[in-house]
Specification:
The chain has 13 helices and 17 strands. The chain folds into two domains: 99 residues, Winged helix-like DNA-binding domain superfamily/Winged helix DNA-binding domain (Arc Repressor Mutant, subunit A, Orthogonal Bundle), CATH 1.10.10.10; 213 residues, Dna Topoisomerase Vi A Subunit, Chain: A, domain 2. 40% of the residues lie in helices and 17% in strands. The chain starts with 5 loop residues before the first helix and ends in a 6-residue tail after the last helix. The chain is globular and about 75 Å long. The strands form six sheets. Strands 10-7-13-12-14-15 form a six-stranded mixed β-sheet, with helices on both faces. Helix 2 packs across helix 4 and helix 8 packs parallel to helix 10.
């Protein structure tokens, strides 16, 4: 039986062999990969996720415009190969410093900014068909989770229900985590850490037999992958709780359909079964939040115009209704507006009521 690290090894070896053969035949070494630009991003209606199209790009070593990026890609491939061999992982910042040096006999650095090494890692993802976590590159962790779940993480048994006020800090790479026990009816993901802290202090996950998870704003890849694994391996529904604003709706959209920047990973980072719980325009009326609205600014309005025309939103009547309500109100609402009804109103009434009534938007 092949180990998980065998595929990354094989793909990197394959890349090396291709380049060696080209050089051995006296050819100009080249890297061919699928274009990652917006012009090559497609919404797959069958899979309900964003993916890359068929447009290809070629990068040649003996082309002044390509040479530096060509070298950067090979440098991160080399770092990945060594990490896999040693059984270690590097942060994106570590990777930047490992390849940041001056090219011999020149005054040019391999990379000057981390954004360059980050893009080279993304190129390597496209070339190999592997996620950066499989290539042993990790981003910063940013997220918390609590619930009646027991996992095995690098030999340590961790109980998500017994980690104090901070919960378990979700790492960037969750591929090797093993679920020993999962006792939950659903997962509630929220965009705001402050809301997670409110629910955690109220022991919402214990009372409602669920898992609560959050990051600060946009979801990290580690969180998206953890949500996906729990959904697929344990058949758990996922409900998303965000602000009633274009940015919150986008967070839901990314979890469900994916993002343009990660279209090259396709369905590896999407969860089509996710449902939107709130805040909705109807909630504002039902829970009398009108006095707590925040006026939309120009940036909000422009963002709303963009996302309401996304392919998966523009033909969805329920979602178009939300955009119409936002336009009519000329305002947005934060989740914390529910605190005006009482500090634990969200835990005691709002969430249980909406979930019991299955008041979701798909």
């Amino acid at each position: 039986m092949k180990k998980k690290q065998d595929k990354p090894k094989e793909e990197l070896k394959k890349l090396g062999k291709q380049l060696f053969c080209q050089i051995n035949k006296g050819k100009n070494p080249e890297l061919t990969f699928t274009l990652r630009g917006l012009s090559n991003v497609i919404f797959d209606h069958k899979l309900k996720s964003l993916r890359l199209g068929d447009k290809k790009s070629t990068r040649n070593f003996f082309n002044l415009a390509h040479a530096k990026k060509f070298l950067q890609t090979l440098e991160v491939a080399s770092v990945s190969k060594n990490l896999i061999k040693e059984g270690k992982h590097a942060s994106l910042r570590d990777a930047f410093y490992q390849i940041k040096r001056t090219i011999p006999n020149t005054k040019t650095n391999v990379v000057d900014e981390q954004s360059e090494s980050d893009k080279a890692i993304e190129d390597l993802e496209v070339i190999t068909g592997l996620a950066r976590e499989q290539l042993h590159f990790n981003a910063n962790k940013n997220g918390s989770v609590a619930g009646k779940v027991v996992i095995l993480d690098k030999g340590d048994t961790i109980d998500w229900s017994k980690l104090g006020s901070g919960g378990w800090s979700v790492p960037s790479n969750v591929e090797d985590i093993k679920f020993k026990k999962v006792n939950a009816k659903y997962i509630l993901y929220m965009e705001k850490a402050a809301v997670w802290e409110r629910l955690h202090e109220d022991k919402f996950w214990d009372k409602q037999k669920c898992i609560i998870m959050s990051s600060q704003g946009q979801t990290t890849r580690g969180i998206r992958r953890l949500l996906q694994r729990l959904s697929e391996e344990h058949n758990l529904p996922i409900y998303v709780l965000t602000d009633f604003d274009p940015w919150g709706f986008y967070i839901y959209s990314v979890i469900k359909y994916g993002s343009i920047s990660l279209a090259h990973l396709g369905s590896k980072m999407t969860i089509p079964t996710v449902k939107f719980l709130g805040i909705t325009g109807q909630d504002i009326e039902n829970y009398k939040l009108e006095k707590h609205l925040i006026k939309l600014n120009d940036k909000d309005v422009n963002r709303m115009k963009q996302i309401m025309n996304y392919e998966w939103f523009k033909d969805n009547k329920k979602w178009q209704e939300q955009f119409k309500l936002m336009k009519r109100l000329k305002a947005k609402a934060e989740i914390q507006a529910l605190s005006s009804r009482g500090i634990s109103f969200i835990s005691d009434k709002y969430l249980p009521e909406k979930i019991n009534k299955k008041d979701f938007i798909d």
